[in-house]
Amino acid sequence: MAKAMQTNPVVIRRILAGLRDAGFVRSEKGHGGGWTIARPLAEITLRDVYEALGGPTLLAMSNRTEAPGCLVEQAVNAVMNDAFAAAEALLLERFAEVTLAALSADFHERLSSQTSTRETDEHDAYF
């Protein structure tokens, strides 16, 4: 997984540990072991996952802090605080509406469509 996500394996282990602590996955040791989903996908939302991972920062943008005494910076930051809070609240609301089952269904539909397209393309290549 780490290689596919182009990250350090420690990052993946920490993510899985957070998901395990929340009861979403479990691990089995030994031959044939590994990580498996511990609850039905329909019972887990993106918000659940977000919270299990410690509520990481959602927005890359944030207020400026180069000149804390600057009145312009203070005014802009005051307005932006409200905008950032509203955007984050909206994202979290949407996350609560999306289950892993819905994501899985979407993935499988896309995979099936891609596979059908490839088969058609490969078939057409012979004629």
From TrEMBL:
InterPro entries in the record, alphabetically? Tscrpt_reg_Rrf2 (IPR000944), WH-like_DNA-bd_sf (IPR036388), WH_DNA-bd_sf (IPR036390)
What is the originating organism of this protein?
Answer: Altericroceibacterium indicum
Short name of one Pfam family for this protein? Rrf2
The lineage, from the top, is:
Bacteria, Pseudomonadati, Pseudomonadota, Alphaproteobacteria, Sphingomonadales
GO (cellular component) term, any one = cytosol
- Put simply, this protein is called Transcriptional regulator
Q: Which PROSITE patterns does this UniProt record tie to the protein?
A: HTH_RRF2_2
Q: Which domain of life is it from?
A: Bacteria
GO terms of molecular function: DNA-binding transcription factor activity
